[in-house]
Amino acid sequence: MTEVFAICTGQPKPFRGSETSAIDKRPVEGPVGIGVLGIAGDSVADTKHHGGVDMAVHHYPHDHYAAWNTWLGEHSLLAGPAAFGENLMASGLTEDGVHIGDRFRLGSALLEISQPRQPCWKIEHRFDRKGMVARIVERHDCGWYYRVIEEGTAEPGDLLERVEPGHADWTVARVFAALYDPAYSHSPAELHGIAALDRLCEPWRDKARKRLEA
């Protein structure tokens, strides 16, 4: 159980050239609705790679901020909200301590971990620093997404409480490493296991299947 000290939302804004992004998010005040497609007032610009029921709510552990500050050299974004475009800001939960399919109560909403977050170039552009994606891949500090099982409302200061375990042994870090870290030695049995995780979103299960066919 951990306190969510900020719930953040954003709308698409100019980001790079003609491209837009909603990675720049700001904290909400008071109760906010959480629906199957995400938090009220939040949006995505790239609907091909972001958004949808399996990427409704983004959680990036605030626990990682201190290490990023050391690596980046006290970057100003880390002193503000949602530096990594996350919807939920909280400490005490990291990728090696949560599992695919874990269910959490936040306010009156019920959330379920659906997939790790795949890092993209927008993080490096936002921070104006190369090498961040490679560091995330190496350290498995990827964050994750929730799908919304029960819609509801929540507000800053609410507790995020794990109320039902998901797939035992299949942490977010392990699944991310198996499919994205080239230094991680996965076995065919592990890939079969990932493909069989019924609470993992279908695109990630399909990644495992394709690795088996390669």
Radius of gyration: 17 Å
In the CATH scheme, what's the topology name? M1 Pyruvate Kinase, Domain 3
Distance between the termini: 41 Å
In the predicted model, the low-confidence regions spanning at least 5 consecutive residues are none
Number of strands: 13
Task: Determine the structural class based on helices, strands and strand pairing.
Answer: alpha+beta
* CATH domain class: Mainly Beta
Helical residue percent band = 10-25%
What is the strand content? Answer: 25-35%
The 3D shape can be described as globular
H/I helix tally: 6
One letter per element, helices H and strands E, the order comes to: EEEEEEEHEEEHHEEEHHH
- State the major sheet: 8 strands, antiparallel
Tally of structural domains: 1
CATH architectural group: Beta Barrel
Descriptive terms for the model:
eight-stranded antiparallel sheet; alpha+beta; 214 residues
Describe this structure in words.
The chain has 214 residues and is α+β, with helices and mostly antiparallel strands. It has a single domain, classed as M1 Pyruvate Kinase, Domain 3 (Beta Barrel), CATH 2.40.33.20. Helix content is 24%, strand content 27%. It is built from six helices and 13 strands. It has helices at 65-72, 121-127, 132-139, 172-180, 188-195, 202-213, and strands at 2-9, 13-16, 19-21, 26-27, 32-35, 38-39, 57-59, 88-90, 103-106, 109-116, 144-150, 152-154, 159-164. Strands 1, 4, 7, 8, 9, 10, 11 and 13 form an eight-stranded antiparallel beta sheet that branches. A three-stranded antiparallel beta sheet has the order 6-5-12, with no helix packed on it. Strand 2 and strand 3 (19-21) form a beta hairpin. The longest helix has 12 residues, at 202-213. The protein is globular and about 45 Å long. The N and C termini lie far apart (41 Å). The mean pLDDT is 95.
